[in-house]
Amino acid sequence: MSLKLVRPGDPKWDYPKASMWLRGGARLVDIGIAWLLYASTGPAGIVMALLYILFADAMIYGQSLGKKLFGVKAIFLPTRSVVRHRDSVLRNAPFGLVVILAMMPDLGFKAFIGGTIVIGGIEAFRAWRDPQGLRLGDLWAQTQVIDGKEPAAQADAIPRQAEEEARATGRANKDAPES
User: Fold this and answer.
1) Strand-pair partners of 126
2) Where are the domains of the chain?
3) 156 phi, psi to nearest 5 deg
4) Torsion angle of alpha carbons 116, 142, 25, 126, nearest 10°?
5) Whether 86 contacts 54, CB under 8 Å
6) pLDDT tens for each residue of the chain, 179 residues long
7) CB neighbours of 38 closer than 8 A, spacing ≥ 6?
């Protein structure tokens, strides 16, 4: 049994690249919400911010609150369906690392700023240069951010039963010979 991997440039998976302005605006809103959670929930604030950043994309049918506001959504490419919790955690892991850096004693704020510049810069550069706008988190989770009004996201979706089977089997390709 082998895993199906998304290959950028494969026409089967190609969706138009979502606007980087919309994606950036959505990310800024999500960072603002994470900061509000951090500031308003006392000692548990950093954990609440981390959980929001990691799980946000699976909140509202493939959209975080920022993505919903800006009209973009994250989809899982092999099944052409919206991301779920596992996919959201994988695609947002680099940004979760930035929040974890803020937990470092004595270096918290400096580590957070440094991590934001380095990790955020790498992710933004990668998304800007990629033809589909895929960043490292998208490659890990096999996801892509698309325009929320993209009709192909619903029209080409794999039927729900096939989607559940693909997810339940660890996203394995059932047509591949077992070794």
Assistant:
1) none
2) 2-173
3) -95, 5
4) 50
5) no
6) 444 555 555 555 578 888 899 999 999 999 999 989 988 988 898 999 999 999 999 998 889 999 999 999 999 998 888 999 999 999 999 999 988 888 888 887 888 888 889 998 999 899 899 988 899 999 999 999 998 775 544 444 455 555 555 555 555 454 545 54
7) 45, 46, 48, 49
Confidence (pTM): 0.74
DSSP per-residue letters across 68-112: HHHTEEEEETTTTEE--HHHHHHHHHHHHHHHHHTTSTTTHHHHH
Q: Kindly report the number of other CB atoms within 10 A of residue 56's CB atom.
A: 24
Helix (H) or strand (E) segment spanning residue 147: strand 143-147
Are 27 and 70 within 8 A, CB to CB?
Answer: no
Q: What are the helix (H) ranges across the chain?
A: 20-40, 45-55, 65-70, 85-101, 108-129, 136-141, 152-155, 160-168
CA pair distance 36, 25, nearest whole angstrom: 17
Q: Are 109 and 102 in contact (CB under 8 A)?
A: yes
Q: Give, as one character, the DSSP assignment of residue 143.
A: E
Greatest alpha-carbon pair distance for the chain in Å reads 53
